[in-house]
Amino acid sequence: MIKDQLKIALGKRIIMLRGKKGWSQSDLARACNKDRQAIEKLENGKVNPTLYTLLELANALEVSLPELVDLR
């Protein structure tokens, strides 16, 4: 996958995992100390998150880091 495709796939994965919890973007943002716009950019594939950001997201969503980035 190329970089943009990976970012889009990750965004879709975050949306799916967030949806499983019944959370809004604001809910996820609060859970990982981000602002809603940061979550929106992640979900839309506009940013390339750091490893630390991915770990914060995984912890907030109560999934492992490998589960978060499983883009198959």
Automatic annotation (TrEMBL):
One matching Pfam family: HTH_3
PROSITE patterns: HTH_CROC1
Keyword DNA-binding: yes
Keywords annotated in UniProt: DNA-binding
Domain HTH cro/C1-type: 14-68
Matches recorded under InterPro entries: Cro/C1-type_HTH (IPR001387), Lambda_DNA-bd_dom_sf (IPR010982)
A single GO molecular function term of this UniProt record: DNA binding
Name recorded for this polypeptide: HTH cro/C1-type domain-containing protein
Lineage of the organism: Bacteria, Pseudomonadati, Bacteroidota, Flavobacteriia, Flavobacteriales
